[in-house]
Input
Amino acid sequence: MNFHQMRDKDLRKEAKKRGLRGYSSLNKAQLIQYLATEVHPLGQISKTTAASEKQIQAAPSEAVGRSPKSSDTTLESLPVNQILSGDCLNILPSFPDGVFDCCIADPPFNMSKKKGLGWAFSSHVTMQEGWDIFSKDEYFQFTLDWVTEVLRVLKPNGNIFVFGSFHSIFTLGFILQSIFDRRIITQIVWYKPNAQPNITCRMFTESTEFIIWAVNNESKKAKNWAFNYRRMKAMNNNKQMRNMWEIPLIKPSERKYGKHPSQKPLAVVERLILAGTNEGDLVLAPFAGTGTTGVVASKHNRRWVMIEKEEAYTQIAKKRLDESFAEQANNIE
Ligand SMILES: C[S@@+](CC[C@H](N)C(=O)[O-])C[C@H]1O[C@@H](n2cnc3c(N)ncnc32)[C@H](O)[C@@H]1O
Output
C-alpha cells in the first residue's frame, strides 16, 4: 500500500480500519508515518502489535531510568573486539540491554540510484549500491528498527553519533528527537574541501555530511554524557573545537585493502572517538563497512563490537584491523 499516493480521507479510513487511535488531529505526513509504523508520531502508542510492543520496550520513559550495570558476566557474553558478519537487525537483539558506552552509526543514506550517474571527465560514478536502496517507507521503518535496538543496547546517557546526508538526516533526526525524545546535543558538519564535482549542474556541489550527536536519555533528563572538552581544544590549537570540521576525503592509503563507496576517513571517526568516549569504553558500530570505527577505537584503547552485512567489506575490515593490531604490537615492543 503506497500511503503517499492516498488521499487524506482514505488515510483516515485506513487508520480507523486498523483500529489506530488518536489520529484525528494528525496532518497528512504524520498520518502516513503512523500508518507505516503503527507508532503514534506524537509519542502515544495506540495499538499493541508485535512492532509496537518493541517500541514500548524502547520508549523513552521505559528505557531511561533503568541503570543497567554491565557486569563482567554480561560483557563476557559479548563479542568484544570482533566484527560480526550479518544483518544488524538480526544480531542486535541478541545483545543485552544497556551495555555499550557509545554507538557510532554510519547507516545506508538511501542515496543510491539503480544506475549511478557518471560523466566523461572522470571515472567517478554516483552511488549504485543494493544495500543503499529503499523506498521512503522502507527506509523509515528500517531506521526506526535499528535505532530502537541501538537505544536499547546503549547505556542511559551514552553517546550516539549518526552519519547522514540530506537524503537521510531528517528521517534520522525526527526519529531520535520526536519519536524517542532523545537529547540532541548538536549536529557536526563534516566539510569535504575536495568533494567530487556536481555532475548534473542543477544544484550546489554536495560537499558536506552531517553527524547527529544525541544522548540516550529523554531530552530533559540527559546528563553526564562523555565529552572530552580539553582534548578537543588541545587538538584545535588550544581554541574551542567548533562543530564544522574541514577534513578531506579519504586518503588512498586508507583504501589499500579494497574500496568501499562510503568509507569514512580515519580522521573524522578519530575525532568522534576522542571527543565522546574514554579509554576502556565499549563502542558499537552496527554498520561497520571497512571497520573504520574498530581501527580507531583499538588505536585509542577503546573496546568495540562491529556488525557488517556484506562479506566483501568484512574482509577488508579484517585486514585493516590485523594491520592496526600489528602496528600497536610493534609500538609496545
Ligand atoms: C555507510 S557504510 C559504512 C562505512 C564505514 N563507516 C566505513 O568507514 O567503512 C554502511 C555499511 O552498512 C552495511 N549495511 C547495510 N545494511 C546493513 C545491515 N542491515 N546490517 C549490517 N550492515 C549493513 C553496508 O554493507 C555498508 O558497508
User: Anything to note?
Assistant: Residues 52 and 258 are 41 Å apart (CA to CA). The chain has two domains: 1-47, 63-332. Confidence is low (pLDDT under 50) at residues 44-69. Residues 87-89, 106, 108, 131, 260, 262-264, 287, 289-290, 292, 307-310, 313 surround S-adenosylmethionine (CB under 6 Å).
